[in-house]
Amino acid sequence: MSEIDVTPIRKPAAKKPVKNLHVEVPEEFHRKVKMLCVMQGLTLKDYALTALREKVLRDEKEMKKK
Predict the structure, then answer these.
(1) Tens digits of per-residue pLDDT, 15-34?
(2) I want to staple 37 with a disulfide (CB 3.0 to 4.6 A). Which of 5, 24, 28, 42 is the partner?
(3) Which one, of 33, 29, 51, lies nearest residue 59 by Cα?
(4) In this structure, is the dihedral angle defined by the CA atoms of residues 23, 48, 36 and 42, taken in order, positive or negative?
């Protein structure tokens, strides 16, 4: 008889509400970004979110200076 795993299943962490962001870009730009993602082992979503977060942080710092 095999052992049965009785490890309790953890509830997933509560997720923050999300919104979708749809952006149309030229095909060539999409291909370029997608190739960068492939070379770095990233998803396009992660790449885009990282870029947006970095841009928002830079903009927030600039706004505080004014």
Answers:
(1) 888 899 999 999 999 999 99
(2) 42
(3) 51
(4) negative
